Structure formats: structure tokens, C-alpha cells
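User: For my dataset I need records formatted as: sequence, then C-alpha cells, nothing else. Please produce one.
Assistant:
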Amino acid sequence: MDSERTPLGVVASEFAEVSVTVDLEANGPRLRLEDLRTKRVRYLDALELETIVWLPDERLTALLDPSANRWRGEA
């Protein structure tokens, strides 16, 4: 693995399996999240992570609905 990335591990359940890595290649540290099933990658910086922490439960629950985005043919 690239020296600018520090693997933290894999978070898995019966619904998803995601690799979590700290990425240092940008202007500051950020999390690199990879869906191990689809290989889709998303980067989250500190502000984005803090936003998730502060989301009200009902907003987070709405984000977890797979029919909202996941099943629309997007890779």
C-alpha cells in the first residue's frame, strides 16, 4: 500500500463491507472509504465527518435508505 495511506481496518456487517484508511495525499488527512463489494471510493475530511456526527437521527436514517441512490444504476 502507498506510504501516504495508513490502513485502519475493515468495518463489516451482513449488509456492507467497507475498508477504512487514513489518506495523507491531499492538503490534510482524510478518511478513504472503499466499498469492497463495488470498489466505489469516497473520501471524507474532518468537516464532513463532523457533519455526520451532528446529523439528527432522522436525517441519518434517510441517508441509509438504499432505494434513495444505491439502486439507480449508479456504480
